[in-house]
Amino acid sequence: SDTKWQPRPADPELEAEMLRRLMVRLGVEESRAKTMVAAEQRQDRAKMSRATDGAGALLLEEAFDRSWRRVGLALDRVGFTVEDRDRSQGLYFVRYVDPDVDGKKKDEDKGVLSKLMFWKGSAADKPAQAQYRIQVKTVGEATTVQVLTREGGIDRSETSKRILGLLYEQLK
Fold first, then answer.
1. Which residues contact 137 (CB under 8 A, 6 or more apart)?
2. 140, 172, 139: which is closest to 43 by C-alpha?
3. Structure pTM?
């Protein structure tokens, strides 16, 4: 007789159907509710853009306040460690462990016995966490999201492109 909430990944089709049913229940005609839900589903809320110099950015068709909140939630969902944030400058200070850097290569080069010697592990064996700045900035009526280096310059590395890709998947 108890109801339990079961966490699961987001399902946009199921959410749209529930929204349609709720609209009908609250008095909207069924045909109008279907068209309203269908029109809302087609909209992409985030777009990837690339400059000719290799710098990437996300373009969000929303105001800064909403974009700031959504980027913060996306960083949390993806698993970034947010060390600090400065809303007045639109900056998140995050740490990111790149799974493709050194971690796989070192494990493949080790033998069976060296893998078992856990007490001989050193800090050099662990993948380094790189610090980045995620900048959320208002441009006209939209908002851009860029990955900056630790020092504040625009990051054009493959890792920054991977970070933007992860954020895009959460924000679209």
1. 90, 143, 144, 145, 146
2. 172
3. 0.63
Strand order in the sheet with 56-60: 46-50, 56-60, 142-148, 130-139, 91-96, 81-86
Give per-residue pLDDT as tens, 118-166: 555 554 444 456 899 999 999 888 899 999 998 888 888 888 889 999 9
Q: Describe the crossing of helices 64-78 and 158-171 by its angle, rounded to 10 degrees.
A: 110
Neighbours of 80 (CB within 10 A): 20
| pLDDT tens digits, 44-62 | 678 888 766 667 899 998 8
Residue type at position 129 = Q
Tokens standing for 4?
A: 């339990």
Q: How many CB atoms lie within 10 A of CB 114?
A: 9
Helices assigned H by DSSP within the chain: 12-25, 30-41, 64-78, 103-109, 112-116, 158-171
